[in-house]
């Protein structure tokens, strides 16, 4: 009965179309493989799954803004002050062929106008050696991990003294 109602409604909505121009399709819902995956862990590197285990605790401030702070796992706390290696996608702050301060995204960037990463899915990189600008491919970064965000800045991780790995 429902199919007949939909077909009748379509005829009422599109009376100028020639007969047979409207064909309703009913698609079977199928499971899809999740293609939204973090960057692969480089040999000897730190997995994004480890970093993503940090819980984000949010609250709304007096002006209505949502602000957050981290709740780090013990595993992540043990990495603080250690030189780690991690792969990801560069999101540069400034124009230029070489970058010393940028964000490393754990997941491929989508829209350049809509940043979709949660605070546990990116790292602020402060490099001692400039990186060539890379807006398409993965890069591997090595640096000293600093855990931040207790100030509710929304930045949980910083890699200091970073360099290409």
Characterization of the model:
By secondary structure, this protein is mainly beta. It has one domain: OB fold (Dihydrolipoamide Acetyltransferase, E2P) (Beta Barrel). The chain contains three helices and seven strands; from the N terminus they run ααββαβββββ. The chain is globular, with a radius of gyration of 23 Å. About 4% of the residues have low confidence. Keywords: Signal. This is DUF3299 domain-containing protein.
Compact description:
This protein is mainly beta and 165 residues long. The protein has helices at 2-13, 48-52, 74-79, and strands at residues 55-60, 66-71, 83-92, 98-105, 122-132, 138-147, 157-164. It has a single domain (48-164), classed as OB fold (Dihydrolipoamide Acetyltransferase, E2P).
How are the SSEs placed, and which strands pair?
Blueprint (H helix, E strand, L loop, with lengths): L1 H12 L34 H5 L2 E6 L5 E6 L2 H6 L3 E10 L5 E8 L16 E11 L5 E10 L9 E8 L1
Parallel strand pairs: 5-7
Antiparallel strand pairs: 1-2, 3-4, 3-6, 4-5, 6-7
Core attributes:
single chain; about 160 residues; mainly beta; OB fold (Dihydrolipoamide Acetyltransferase, E2P); globular
Element-by-element helix/strand order: HHEEHEEEEE
The CATH architecture classification is Beta Barrel
How much of the sequence lies in strands comes to: 35-45%
The shape, in one word, is globular
Q: For the residues shown, what is the average pLDDT?
A: 84
> Which class of secondary structure composition applies to the elements?
mainly beta
Rg to the nearest angstrom?
A: 23 Å
Low-confidence stretches: 4-9
Strand order of the largest sheet: 3-4-5-7-6
The number of strands is 7
Count of the domains: 1
| Number of helical segments with 4 or more residues | 3
Distance between the termini: 63 Å
Oligomer kind: single chain
Q: What is the assigned CATH homologous superfamily?
A: Protein of unknown function (DUF3299)
CATH topology name, in short, is OB fold (Dihydrolipoamide Acetyltransferase, E2P)
């Amino acid at each position: 009965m429902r199919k007949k109602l939909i077909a009748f409604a379509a005829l009422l909505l599109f009376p100028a179309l020639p007969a047979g121009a409207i064909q309703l399709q009913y698609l079977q819902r199928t499971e899809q493989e999740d293609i939204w995956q973090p960057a692969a862990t480089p040999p000897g590197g730190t997995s994004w799954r480890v970093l993503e285990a940090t819980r984000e605790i949010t609250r709304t401030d007096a002006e209505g803004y949502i602000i957050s702070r981290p709740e780090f796992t013990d595993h992540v706390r043990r990495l603080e002050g250690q030189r780690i290696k991690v792969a990801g996608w560069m999101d540069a702050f400034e124009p230029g062929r070489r970058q010393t301060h940028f964000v490393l995204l754990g997941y491929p960037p989508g829209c350049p106008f809509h940043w979709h990463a949660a605070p546990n899915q990116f790292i602020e990189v402060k490099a001692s050696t400039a990186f060539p600008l890379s807006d398409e491919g993965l890069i591997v970064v090595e640096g000293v991990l600093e855990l931040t965000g207790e100030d509710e800045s929304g930045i949980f991780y910083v890699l200091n003294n970073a360099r290409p790995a």
